[in-house]
Amino acid sequence: MHNFINYLWYKAPTITLIPLLPLSLVFFILIFIRKYIFYKFFKRYTSKYKTIVVGNLTVGGSGKTPFTIWLSNYLESKNKKIAVISSGYGSSVSSPTKVTNSSFPQKVGDEAVLIHSKINSIVVSGKNRVKSSMHCDQYDLDYIIHDDGLQHYSLNRNHQLIIINNNFRGNNFVLPCGPYREPKFFHNKKDYIFSNYRENIYPGFYSKITAFKSCNNQQFYACDDKKFSDSILLTAIADDSIIIQELNEYNINIQSYKYPDHYQYKVSDIPISDKPILVSEKDYVKIKLFNCSNVYILEQKIIPNAKLLEMIDHIL
């Protein structure tokens, strides 16, 4: 089913989508009415702290979570006190929960655990954005950052930052004909930030693999180390194509094992091999309890362009 949907959204000729167009029209009408009602007739919750929503328009990965991590650390470097709210997607979290060093991905979500491991700020996991924001009232903060949440119209926001994958090659239809949760015209282009973007015409960023970190002894290895010339890549993320492309630039022969986004690994999913097993930081938080000796984390760094820094500094 996953492969069929990918074909439908990213490769299928437009004419083959005609049978689904009525469903996309119904979906568009419903989300348009929903947004109109929330904005015109409902009192939207406004936090006592400035609220930044990081979101995207399409289903699948665009770089929201890595950007949220970078943004939190950047604001903290400007002496701002931050809390990050994650949705707890794929977890059993039922009420707003502060993430700690002992939190499990199954309980609070893989992205919440990853964010907590990469920032010094408070991280809260919760399926209800408003309740999670209320939970943050007990903390002394300057900003609340929501990782995802663009379509949560009950939540007022001071700023919204919409991540657009610069490598996106799909069609422009809303669900189910295409991958769009909302049409582009719902939002102002001034809120757009382009991921996988190396120019400086628009605000944007790209990520770069800086090293491989051993899960066994925490040793760092250079990306061109011959030890990794023949490796396994294990991922359960929305899009691993950028990672594969970058690894290929280091002449690494990759054997790829790909699982659906947010997949909860079992021990049996880990390949039995003497080859190094490379995983993203998001994947590692879900397998670290397995104590695999030949697993290496892809250490990645966000590289913002000058336009993006200017945009964020304007928020402060």
Task: Provide the spatial order of strands within the biggest beta sheet.
Answer: 3-4-2-5-1-6-7
Q: Briefly, what CATH class of the largest domain?
A: Alpha Beta
Oligomeric nature of the chains: single chain
User: Which architecture of the largest domain per CATH?
Assistant: 3-Layer(aba) Sandwich
Inertia-based shape: globular
CATH topology of the largest domain: Rossmann fold
Mean pLDDT comes to 95
Low-confidence stretches: none
The share of residues in helices is 25-40%
The total beta strand count reads 13
Strand content: 15-25%
As for the number of domains, it is: 2
Order of helices and strands: HHEHEEHHEHEEEEEEHEEHEH
Radius of gyration over C-alpha positions, nearest whole angstrom:
20 Å
Alpha-beta classification: alpha/beta
Could you characterize the architecture of this molecule?
The chain has 316 residues and is an alpha/beta fold. The protein folds into two domains: 2-195, Rossmann fold; 207-302. Helix content is 28%, strand content 22%. The chain has nine helices and 13 strands. The protein has helices at residues 2-10, 21-41, 64-77, 105-108, 110-118, 129-135, 241-249, 281-287, 306-315, and strands spanning 50-55, 82-86, 97-98, 122-125, 143-147, 159-165, 192-195, 205-214, 220-221, 230-235, 253-258, 277-279, 295-304. It has a seven-stranded mixed beta sheet with strand order 3-4-2-5-1-6-7, sandwiched between helices. It has a six-stranded mixed beta sheet with strand order 9-8-13-12-10-11, with helices on both faces. The longest helix is centred in the first third of the chain and has 21 residues, at 21-41.
